[in-house]
Fold Leucine-binding protein domain-containing protein.
Amino acid sequence: MRPIQTLTALALLSFSLASAQSTIKIGAVTSLSGRFATFGAMQQAGFKVAIDELNAKGGVNGQKLELLLEDDASDTNKALNAAEKLVNQKVPVVIGAYSSGVTKPLSQYMARVKVPLLVATAIDETITKPGNPYTFRVNNQSSVYTRSLINELKKIGGMKTAVVLTSNDAFGKSVLTDAGKLLPAAGFTVLSKDTYDKGLTDFRPLLNRYKGQNPDVVIFASYEEDAVALAKQVKETGLAPRVIAGIATGFALPDFLKGAGSTAENFLVTMVWNADVKYPGAGSLYTRLKTALGGEEPSQHAAQSYAAVLAAADAIKRGGTDPEKVRAALEGTKLNTAFGPVTFRDYAGYQNQNSVVGLITQVQGGKFVTIGPASAATGKVVLPKK
């Protein structure tokens, strides 16, 4: 009986090893806790919808996908620890993180260990400029948001002066730099450029100063809580330019609409994906993301993260699970997704070359309505009467 028992044991061991190897693991790092947790929840929903979709179609090369998701707690050091943990588990690619301040050092670490990083939401220009051969960004960089907004302002016409206020972090500084160059080039006089530190809750002294300057355009770049506070305090101070605009991030969240309520009405908000975009499958993606969020409205961050998983899976399908071969496969990515096309181009860093035009939405009736560019618009801009 012992030989039979031995053979049985070997068979069970063989089955166990095969089961252990039956999934392909993809790593991800995002903010499931801390100040960016709302964005992390959006990313997690995007990850889940993509993994479920791919596995329902048979996975990748006959193997199911498994997401190893780590919480960076909105902290750079914890993100680096999380990435190290994933690298030690031999993942062929990592997706992450949310914020630019966390993602840039994360990309530098991933380059040192030679494992590709897919950036899904962080927009700081310097992540991919100059960048490195192991970082690939699915979403667009900050200048796309700012340039798209300014192009839309020029089309609207009749405006010549602007003020800019951003958060004092990697994201905000990137937007401030872009706006400082692009606004004057478009014929605008910049009356004020300011940043504020994390923790500031009373913006009224700044807003009152802007009111005295009487700008045509006010541009904000802020995270979640600050975006809501700014909208409410704009109303309180009576600051009334022709256009108030929010550059993505906190302004692009459904929670901005809920938190700011009627004070958000008519804000222009730049983003790269909205529920009303005309990409094939976008409607279905919106529905699935909303289900994954328990009925909450999905933001562009969820759609971006969905596309990042598809890009990772596509590279693994073509290159296998060796990180270097995945990196090489990412260079040849050509995907059409419900988020939009994904094709990386190396111009001082691997950037999705199709993510070069931002959507301009306006809050109308408590919803984001796409008003630009014309090829994507489902509505028209509404401006206050002079």
Observations:
- Residues 257 and 367 are 7 Å apart (CA to CA).
- The first helix runs from residue 2 to 20.
- The chain has two domains: 24-140+278-353, 143-271+359-376.
